[in-house]
Predict the 3D structure of the following.
Amino acid sequence: MPERFINLCIVEHILLWGITKTDEDLIAWIRLDDFFRIRPLVICSHIKVKVLTYRGLPFVIKRIKQRKMLLLGAILFFSLLYTLSSYIWFVEITGLKNIPEQEVRTIAEQYGLKAGAIKNNINSKAVEREIALQVPEVAWVGINFTGTRAVVEIVEKTMPKQEDKAPAHLVAGKDGVITEIIVLAGQAAVKNGDTVKKGDLLINGVFLEPAPSALEGQPPISNIPKELRARGIIKARIWYEGYAETELKQTTVTRTGNQHIAVAMKIGNSEVAFNELPEQLYPEYETEIIYKQLPLWRNREVVVESTITIYREINTEHKEKSFEEARNEAHAKALQAVQSSIPETAQIVSRNYEVLKTPAEDIVRVKVNVETIEDIGQTINIYQ
């Protein structure tokens, strides 16, 4: 009478859950403490109880006691894992650009930060301080520990560029007409209104320094040549020219997304075709052919290759532009081509364009002229 047994368990406040019925049997879960209380209820209900399975911490402990070597091995494993995790096995240095990595690594090893060192014995603050003191290019140092890995983060100083003080001339970097001259060091070689070409001398880095007056009865002393680094601002008018063209009739080809793939395999002298073409393919299409061949070691004497042909449907549209549209488009292209050559510091004085007359009636050609004023000075060392 299993139903009576369940009713008696309810009266005695014995919890049963997951109850399922199989033929004449009832299967249910019960707590371990309650299991030892059901003996009188089993006798009253005239049923038999069989333990099918058991789960929980008490049974795990029981199994572990029966397998003491497994418990000992687990203890040794976690002890070894804890011991090894207290060491540093990898040292990574990040943020280096100009400083040699070995220099930083050597300093860190001298103060205990190296592979195989105990993590608790490393004074990270001392290592950071010594790296910052011994490497003047370092602006900041930080050491972080992640498991068995130590990461040394370096931030380098932004060192000012050393000024070149070698004697030099100032020459023209572009062709132009001089509009302004400001000499800061050296002797001017040109004047306002002069036309110069690229490479012409603008400010001379070699000049004659007046010699002291000669004493009575002595021959006059010639001027003394002196070398310095020429500096100054030399502005000139520069002209840029650009060209572009646009067709009045434009054809655009776009893919519709529809395609058909035909595969043909060749084995020796025989050829087998798969996915043959339909009788009516697309009105307009483009073709792509892909050849694939097995390596020679795979088919030594018999050549096996396949040909994949892809037919993609396309749509061709013909558009005719007005003269004004074509002219504006060519003007924009030519102006964009010129803008890429003009420096940002240049002062644009004027822009103008001209439509070129050509025998072809379906093409519009435009030439753009841009006039700027910019500094064309370029320093070249006297002794290179």
